[in-house]
Write a structure and sequence with these properties.
This protein has a single domain (15-112), classed as Immunoglobulin-like (Sandwich). Strand 3 and strand 4 (63-70) form a beta hairpin. The strands form two sheets. Strands 5-2-1-8 form a four-stranded antiparallel sheet, with no helix packed on it. It has a four-stranded antiparallel sheet with strand order 4-3-6-7, with no helix packed on it. With 133 residues, it is mainly β. It has no helices and eight strands.
Length: 133
């Protein structure tokens, strides 16, 4: 019987998940939002993002997002991050296609890691934010 070869999924580079605090004009409050950043030199296509919050005792609902295309050197909002959810680990499983290949990576914001003290310069987004691990 022939041996099956493992599927070759290349290493994700220059694609990030970041959190940024922004002012919501509609509700007149500052809020945290998660963004997908494409710092690659090519468009990424059919980005599928599955997010959830969790710790040893709690787990949120799983939320799924899809971006048809994310051009090179750009970013797009994934979702609003509620304060209560920031007390949990927040995982973003990202799968996308680029250059005819499939890429996949798991990004995590550890619980309580999204806060004002952790703000840093991040790729593409002009404001300071926090990159997921």
């Amino acid at each position: 019987m022939p041996v099956k070869k493992d599927i070759d999924i290349p290493v994700v580079e220059e694609v990030y998940v970041a959190a940024e605090k922004v002012y919501n004009e509609s509700f007149k409050v500052e809020e945290w939002n998660a963004y997908l950043i494409n710092n690659r030199d090519e468009t990424i296509e059919m980005a599928l993002i599955v997010s959830k919050g969790y710790d040893d005792e709690k787990q949120t609902s799983v939320i799924r997002h899809k971006l048809e295309k994310l051009p090179s050197k750009s970013f797009a909002k994934i979702e609003f991050l509620q304060e209560e959810v920031l007390k949990l680990n927040n995982q973003f499983q990202v799968t996308f296609f680029a250059g005819g290949k499939m890429f996949e990576k798991k990004y995590i914001f550890r619980k309580n890691s999204v806060n004002e003290k952790a703000l840093r310069e991040i790729p593409i987004i002009p404001n300071r934010g926090i990159l997921a691990e």
